[in-house]
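User: These chains co-purify. Model them together.
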Amino acid sequence: MRIFDTNVQQIKYEVLKALIRNAYENNIDNIYVDIPKMISPGPKANLRCCIYKERAILQERIKLALGGDKNNPNVIEVLDIACDECPIGGVFVTQACRGCIFHGCAEACPKGAISIIDKKAVIDKSKCIECGLCKKACPYNAIIEQHRPCVMSCKVKAITMDENKKAKIDNDKCISCGACVYQCPFGAIADKSFVMETIDILKNSNENKNYKVYAVIAPSIVSQFKYARIEQVVSGIHKLGFHQVVEAALGADITLYHEVNEFKEKGLLTTSCCPSFVMYVEKYFPEFRQYISSSVSPMVETAKLIKSSDKTAKVVFIGPCTSKKMEYKTEKANKYIDSVISFEELQAFFDARDVDVTKLDDTVLDNASFYGRIFAKSGGIARGVKDVSESMGIKGVNPVAMNGIDECKLNLLKLKIKKSEYNFFEGMACDGGCLNGALCLHHGPKNLADVDRYGNEAKEKTIDNSVKLYKLANGIKDEEETGKK
Amino acid sequence: MIVKVCVGSSCHLKGSYAVIENFKKLIEKYNVSDKVELQASFCLGRCSTGVTVLADDRFIDGVNENNTEEIFVKEIMSSLK
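Assistant: Joint model of the two components:
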């Protein structure tokens, strides 16, 4: 069964798997030579111009798998030699131009950039504004528009070309959402990995005797690893050496509780679960900074709860997200989260450790509520906020779910000119929400149905018990609760 | 004394939240809130005999909604000074 969407993911996985295997065999002195030779044995190159380039790119991937450039604060990096310097043609005329006498293209061009030379259409690039009207006017579809996939994927325009036509990321603009990572067809933009850090945490725990290692899993996991049951995947994570698996959805319940209370105070709020969305607001709408929910994300909230009951615990988050790899290094999170790995990396872990989850017994997983679990989809928080605020007797919440950065931009612009009817803004950088995160094994519409089913299977239909847990951990008595009673 | 009630998945399904609620009421009823601190804990590793309670460093297995008071008196009140 095919596990990944793309071959690019497959190659990244091969590198990670080999690295994890070597790390457990304490055999990492020659990885830069051994791993590329193993993955690309030659003598012919399969993917690039020659075997040497293929191996050189694999070496760059190993570097990223080992944590990447320590001087670059971004978790997303361009692999220069892997970048194919895609043409930046924009709008151009192809061989299919019939040299007709209709000249609809020239007529349609608002800038007079098209002339007919030797009976064929020619675009004057100095005049062309790439509006695409000529493309629409041509009855033969002879004019096409091509842009670099990385540039197109980046909604905040952080990717440009350097003098060598290589992609370049402007860290001041980048929100680390990872869209370019998934969409570059050459795999030339990739995320740093912290698998080595995770291996150290697991090894040094001495099978959970020195301290216990907890895995916090993002709710979108239910739409992944489809070749097995989620309960088997949980067993597999145990087999890797984790003491316990806890749902981040449990923290999501608590985040929901905080956000409803915070809304009551402020009257206008944006969510803080998606670190890319938070970065987006901070960089592009700094005037709304004060309205970003001060709650920590579900990932951090869950880890806090774990560490309140087990002081020496170490916590590793497993999710679909590049920007969680940024978030856990921040001051708000680094006390609680010790490392972050992706679903892709979890798959590599399973296979490197020869854990076949399809052969394992089930481990029950039931900590969180319906609401916490549907945080993985766009609209999940908005739904939760509406229902929870009603049950807490807080009136006037009018939430909107902003699905992807384009919708975030549109809604925040409306808010800026005071034309928004909403007062609670759920923002998610990935289209569809976390279930389409950049580091998911696969992407697609079916993921949504899985998340919905998982939500409905939750034993807890309200967030009450999760909130009880939070209060118990923080010594808050029920009477001190705001909003209720 | 620190009393930890396991809220791992297995104990959760066996009713650990009801046990917590009962303990809260019992701590008030017996007026020992200055002596007993109630906490929740993730998996204590005794899934087959849950709900598991850890009283300082002593495990108490098989707690449920109906036997909480009995166990509270026998196992917890008796070891308070």
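The radius of gyration of chain B is 11 Å.
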